[in-house]
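Lab meeting, item 3. Inverse folding demo.
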């Protein structure tokens, strides 16, 4: 997917999350390990959110175990850099054919 299409999907995901009661903390956090698309807060839980979109395939399958490992390393770096000790989870926002699905705690799949 091109960066332009990725940005469009992330914008849609951010709007969806805000309407669902999340506060966006940061977008596109980069480390040497990888990237977190959206970091958001809801209640006392920090959510690290991977955004995937597609038309002719199931976007959730683009979140591989290797991708999860990179996300976890990036989360650890984010928490260390920001001196944070908080509860968190890894979620996904899946956008397919104009439908948006929020999947909480994808590490349990």
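The presenter then showed the designed sequence:
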């Amino acid at each position: 997917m091109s960066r332009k299409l990725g940005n469009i999907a992330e914008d849609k995901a951010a709007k969806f999350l805000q309407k669902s009661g999340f506060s966006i903390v940061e977008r596109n956090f980069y480390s040497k390990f990888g990237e977190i698309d959206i970091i958001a807060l809801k209640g006392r839980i920090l959510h690290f959110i991977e955004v995937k979109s597609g038309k002719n395939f199931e976007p959730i399958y683009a979140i591989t175990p290797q991708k999860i490992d990179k996300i976890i390393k990036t989360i650890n770096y984010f928490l260390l850099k920001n001196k944070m000790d908080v509860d968190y989870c890894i979620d996904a926002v899946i956008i397919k054919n104009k439908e948006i699905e929020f999947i909480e705690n994808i590490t349990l799949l």
